[in-house]
Amino acid sequence: MRLSKEFREQFAQQEMRTHGRKNGFVTDGQEKRLLHWLPKIGLPKDKTLNDANIPEKSSIVMEIGFGNGDFLVDTAKKHPDWILVGVEIYLPGVAKAVGRLEDAGVIEQARITQLPAQYVLEHQVQVEQLDGIIVNHPDPWPKAKHHKRRIIQKDMANLMVSRLQVGGFIQLASDIAELAEWMRDILDNTQGLRNVAGKGAYIERADDRIFTKFEQRGIHAGRTSQFLHYVKE
Ligand SMILES: C[S@@+](CC[C@H](N)C(=O)[O-])C[C@H]1O[C@@H](n2cnc3c(N)ncnc32)[C@H](O)[C@@H]1O
Known about the structure:
Layout: H1 5-11, H2 28-41, E1 59-64, H3 70-78, E2 82-87, H4 91-103, E3 110-113, H5 117-124, E4 130-136, H6 154-163, E5 164-174, H7 177-188, E6 193-195, H8 213-220, E7 226-232
The chain binds S-adenosylmethionine (SAM).
S-adenosylmethionine binds next to α5 and α8.
């Protein structure tokens, strides 16, 4: 990877501790697009969403762990009036997503960061600034001793709620039954949130929902995904 030191210091996350891979191969073409687009739509570490040129009337929806960006692109196309804040710690994922957003003609609707979602929410997003948060197929960390690495934790749930406007949503998906239950149990017991399906329940898969890479992987392995939808009251 030949991203310059200055570029990496501004846009790439190196020093913050996270669980999961951060770096990997980025092609020359992807690198060129990153260098072109991140200075325009990237969210540098020392800036907040208030500095991100977001049109005043736009809804702001964050996707945490967008992987290769398929869902981000599809959501941007379906909601031209939304600004999508894409948060993904894996640089090759960021690179793929930037390419896909550009090819789909929706890149100016996106604000992209490689920083960990916990940092972005705590330091770069204001209280009640978001209209929605999407988390699709987060890492399951199946061993009990690694459960503390899962992205949905009690503190994270409270942080997410604090960043949502009243009426804002949290949507989650998982193809791992035990993780879906984990997320549901935490969010069902988070003050200020209402489970749209009713406590302990999941919503139906939306007909127009695209299949993300990890949902497809689950299907190939014979697993059925579960979907959760919460609203801040
Ligand atoms: C299992 S993948 C799912 C990708 C995609 N959402 C999908 O459904 O195909 C989980 C993603 O979350 C990202 N991730 C893990 N921890 C994160 C964090 N703290 N902040 C942002 N992204 C994170 C990983 O790098 C990975 O790309």
